[in-house]
Amino acid sequence: MDFLTSAEFWAALGQVIVIDIILGGDNAVVIALACRRLPPAQRSKGIVFGTAGAIVLRVILIAFAMALLDIPFLKLVGALLLVWIGVKLLAPDEDGHGDIQGSDKLLSAIKTIVMADLLMSMDNVIAIAGAAQNSGEHSLLLVILGLLFSIPIIVLGSQLVIRLMERFPLIITAGGMLLGWIAGGMLVTDPAFVDPDQWTWMPKPVTVDAQGEAVIPGPLYWAAHVAGALLVLALGKLLASRQKGALAH
């Protein structure tokens, strides 16, 4: 239980919760749309069971994603995807949820929630895997705790979360930069850049401990985090500016 006193564990847990809330707003909308035609007596059951199924599926996907991140260069790909997700968060496309069909059958509504969450949650999966991947043997526990904290906030307080984001756009900006921050860390901790036994011809910008498990932070490690956050901010603002210009014409 020593990990409970680790500042790194709690910082990573905070990142997971923030990512879930920032990227999970759409999931609350999907739940509401999928259950809107259920009889009132079954609506709460549809929300609870559909959300539970989505959580279980997402934990499995994240565990799988974290295992894949041990393969050389996959963290690099994940970092690029995270940068793109962060940029799109700052400059979103105008799209709706008109394709989410409500159902008057409980099992159909649950299936709709689980399938829609599967299709929509890949950004969450990549981001959370990146945030949790340096937590060692407690990474899966961190993911589960993050989901348990954040899902009730999303489901029960979705309207409040949405209103706060609309009133304080800085929350969205901070969320996008957080994804860039994580992407920078993922990039320089890719096994190809860290493991001295792999790709030996390549310079190793980040070192690991004697067991080859924990990354030893250095100036480049933190510089990569900062560079990732600033890159998302710059690209997001640039894309948003171009979108506004296109609409003006």
Q: Name the average pLDDT.
A: 75
> Which structural category do the helix and sheet elements fall into?
mainly alpha
Q: Please tally the helical runs, counting DSSP H or I stretches of 4 or more residues.
A: 11
User: How many individual domains?
Assistant: 1
Profile the largest sheet: 2 strands, antiparallel
Proportion of residues in β-strands: under 5%
- Sequence of secondary-structure elements: HHHHHHHHHHEEH
Helicity level: over 70%
| N/C terminus separation | 59 Å
Shape: globular
Radius of gyration over alpha carbons? 19 Å
Low-confidence stretches: none
Membrane topology: Multi-pass membrane protein
Transmembrane segments: 12-35, 47-67, 138-156, 168-188, 220-240
Keywords: Membrane, Transmembrane, Transmembrane helix
Protein name: Integral membrane protein, YjbE family
Provide a short characterization of the protein structure.
The protein is mostly helical and 249 residues long. It is 73% helix and 2% strand. Helix 1 packs across helix 9 and helix 4 packs across helix 11.
Task: Give a description of the structure.
By secondary structure, the chain is mainly alpha-helical. It has one domain. The protein has eleven helices and two strands. It has helices spanning 7-23, 25-35, 40-68, 74-90, 106-120, 122-132, 139-156, 158-167, 170-188, 191-194, 219-248; strands spanning 207-208, 215-216. Helix 3 packs antiparallel against helix 7. The longest helix is centred in the C-terminal third of the chain and has 30 residues, at 219-248. The protein starts with 6 loop residues before the first helix and ends with a helix. The chain crosses the membrane at residues 12-35, 47-67, 138-156, 168-188, 220-240.
